Amino acid sequence: MHQLSPPPRPASALTERQRQCLVLAADGLTSARIGAVLGLSPRTIDEHLAEACRLLGVRTRIQAVARFAAAAPDVRDDATVDLRQRISGSMLRARRG
């Protein structure tokens, strides 16, 4: 018998680290690159993203990013916005360098 998934939880249920991983995944970073940015292993990043998928009621990181982006105005916080700005700036400097 097929087991039903629990209903999705709101994006506000995500931890700060899960939100950071989703923000960076939305920018196209791999788990390895996200890990390098956050000082974590790629496997840990995969775990954060898998848990975010479970909480959001989706199967893939792409779906999680889309669901999170749709809810972002409700859950955006200064730390996540600052992270995205910091990463964008460092990626631009690396490309120019």
Automatic annotation (TrEMBL):
<protein>
    <submittedName>
        <fullName>Helix-turn-helix transcriptional regulator</fullName>
    </submittedName>
</protein>
<keyword id="KW-0805">Transcription regulation</keyword>
<keyword id="KW-0804">Transcription</keyword>
<feature type="domain" description="HTH luxR-type">
    <location>
        <begin position="7"/>
        <end position="72"/>
    </location>
</feature>
<dbReference type="InterPro" id="IPR016032">
    <property type="entry name" value="Sig_transdc_resp-reg_C-effctor"/>
</dbReference>
<dbReference type="InterPro" id="IPR036388">
    <property type="entry name" value="WH-like_DNA-bd_sf"/>
</dbReference>
<dbReference type="InterPro" id="IPR000792">
    <property type="entry name" value="Tscrpt_reg_LuxR_C"/>
</dbReference>
<keyword id="KW-0238">DNA-binding</keyword>
<dbReference type="Pfam" id="PF00196">
    <property type="entry name" value="GerE"/>
</dbReference>
